[in-house]
Specification:
Length: 340
């Protein structure tokens, strides 16, 4: 669900009024009087919705997860086959484009909060541990918490609600938003943690921004290189696992999950919702496409592009990336063809 620590929801917005405000009043015809007056309490991912939280299922093939949804307001496609909801408090609303309607409602509910997300005007955080060193020109949003022995370099911006653990080292010109930082983390100069993910819906009048309302979790012992960027999730978290090391100039897209003890070399790229397991190695300029998954102990050679999911203990090379022995055979055949 959307973390209220970072994103304040617009208060007292009922379902019928919200649908009318975004031009979807026709959907409200499905509501009885009681449901029309439901007041939104947040947003989240199906089936993990709490009472009166907003969610959606864009594709009918994923409707099976709705059977486990006990609460919330769920936007579904017009042809969706609804589950047996007799014992559920969930409300299902049919619409022509659930994702677009969901995006419009998110913007209505959280737009004001998002516009002020980067506003940092305080020179001292809410909670400051022992032995903390703050360089000049460090600014904080509301409710920031910093653990013992942290060091923060000059010209940094720490956004509202951010928590920073013990023994953390943050270089100069770093910005952090919507993030929880574990203990013994190192963030080098110029890194951007928790910035808005790259998400848009196509429209006739141009791309429509999808509000990014997730978080970044940097677990204990993580290191983030200079000028690397870790986007926050759309609704869920972007996670970098314990003791993983990220080199300079790496892009980590929204909702990415990186396992423990991984090493990611410079200029690598992780598209949104990609996942890699523990002890994975990425060579320089390697990348992985959205929603692809790598198992534990995989190795991705430099400049390779992982275009589909791969099992554990696989060494990959090429574009698109294949098992390295296959890639070497392909290269040998190409070299032979060039000589003929």
């Amino acid at each position: 669900m959307v973390d209220q620590r970072f994103y304040a929801i617009k208060q007292n917005v009922c379902l019928a009024d919200a649908l009318s405000a975004i031009g979807e009043g026709a959907i409200g015809a499905q509501l009885d009087k009681k449901d029309a007056q439901r007041v939104f309490t947040g947003a989240g991912t199906v089936p993990f919705l709490h009472e009166n939280e907003l969610g959606f299922i864009a594709d009918s093939k994923y409707m099976e997860v709705a059977a486990d949804c006990a609460h919330g307001v769920v936007l579904v496609a017009e042809d969706a086959e609804l589950p047996d909801v007799q014992a559920s408090d969930a409300l299902y609303l049919r619409c022509s484009d659930p994702y677009r309607t969901f995006t419009g409602l998110l913007d209505l509910l959280y737009g004001d909060s998002l516009r002020l997300l980067g506003y940092c005007a305080e020179t001292s955080p809410k909670a400051l541990g022992n032995g903390v060193h703050l360089a000049p020109n460090v600014y904080f949003g509301a409710d920031v918490e910093i653990g013992d022995n942290a060091v923060i370099g000059p010209n940094c911006s720490i956004g509202r609600g951010v928590t920073i653990g013990h023994n953390v080292m943050i270089g100069d010109n770093v910005s952090i938003q919507c993030a929880h930082i574990g203990d013994n983390v190192v963030i080098h100069s110029g890194a951007r943690i928790g910035v808005e993910g790259f998400g848009f819906l196509p429209r006739a009048d141009g791309p429509q921004k999808i509000p990014q309302l997730g978080r970044v979790i940097l677990q204990n012992g993580v290191e983030i290189g200079a000028n690397s960027c870790v986007d926050r999730g759309t609704l869920d978290d972007t996670i970098v696992g314990e003791n993983s090391k990220i080199d300079n100039l790496v892009q980590i897209g929204h909702n990415t999950k990186i396992g423990r003890n991984c090493q990611i070399a410079a200029k690598s790229g992780f598209a949104g919702s990609s996942e890699i397991g523990d002890n994975v190695l990425f060579g320089g300029r390697a990348s992985i496409v959205n929603k692809a998954k790598l198992g534990d102990r995989c190795v991705v050679m430099a400049c390779s592009i992982v275009s589909k999911s791969q099992k554990s203990d696989t060494i990959l090379a090429g574009n698109p990336a294949v098992e390295v022995k296959q890639w070497r055979r392909m290269q040998a055949k190409l070299k032979k063809m060039g000589r003929d």
